[in-house]
């Protein structure tokens, strides 16, 4: 699948950079102090309020995000990065994002980690440490865990880990963070638009009390791709079991799909469907249909339309 190869490499690299072990023991919970008020860190759910981006090099550097902001003439409100299991919260990056008015969106991905072991508490040392760091940061953070689980391309996905085991791990992680007083977390439950696995999506739902936002990942690959064909079926599926706000948490339009001509379709449909916003995967890939050039830079017409429609989405929010 299009970005899977890079995402997996990014996860491995993130873990390697930290030099941290895979924690395999239960920690004793530390006592939360100076807890932030939930009201002070609660994020708005106004439709259209969030433009986000993913850039290569984050979270080791914030510079590509600054370049994107200058290019589109707007600061992204969400900045996505992938966190390998064992990696600590990137507080310096989060502070840099906050200084620009942005919010970190972190996908914690347990590559080749037993989700049953997570539920059993074997990684509580790691989770409590991470939660304490997030709590100490104090500003809003959006966190997802084991995203796109309705696909088969990740070790935690469909066919590798049962939906029940996945749900139990998700609930455990949310519970640990809450017990540590990390009330500044907005929990993002993220699925892929994969049309061949929509029937399994409800089986992964951990319950409304464990989720704040729903994320949907999906890309325009072909000239025949439109919002209604990519996201229409998955949104209808989601709305059968929850009315939580929906964010397009990872998306882009490839050159093969007709980037410049499809940008109005993406944003106007996000507005019409009252979605939270769009997180653009601003990376140039060169590996066939599923690994296209997704970047806006170097494509003047696409860039002009992106600026215009992003402004319309934000103004509508």
In short:
This protein has helices spanning 4-18, 38-41, 63-72, 91-99, 115-119, 124-137, 163-179, 227-230, 232-238, 259-272, 300-316, and strands at residues 50-54, 78-84, 103-109, 141-145, 185-192, 213-217, 246-251, 277-281. It is of the alpha/beta class and 317 residues long.
Explain this structure.
With 317 residues, this protein is an alpha/beta fold. The chain has a single domain, classed as Alpha-Beta Barrel (TIM Barrel), CATH 3.20.20.80. Helix content is 37%, strand content 15%. It has 11 helices and 8 strands. The chain has an 8-stranded parallel beta barrel with strand order 1-2-3-4-5-6-7-8, surrounded by 5 helices. Strand 2, helix 4 and strand 3 form a beta-alpha-beta unit. Helix 6 crosses helix 7. It starts with a helix and ends with a helix. The relative contact order is 0.16.
Feature tags:
single chain, 317 residues, alpha/beta, TIM Barrel, eight-stranded parallel β-barrel, 37% helix, 15% strand, globular, disordered N terminus
From the alpha carbons, calculate the radius of gyration and give it in angstroms: 18 Å
- How widely separated are the two ends? 32 Å
Name of the top-level CATH class:
Alpha Beta
CATH topology category name? TIM Barrel
Q: Tell me how many strands there are.
A: 8
> How would you name the CATH homologous superfamily?
Glycosidases
Largest sheet: 8 strands, parallel, barrel
Give the overall shape, derived from the CA principal axes: globular
- Unreliable stretches (pLDDT < 50, length at least 5) are 1-39
Q: What oligomeric state best describes the polypeptide chains here?
A: single chain
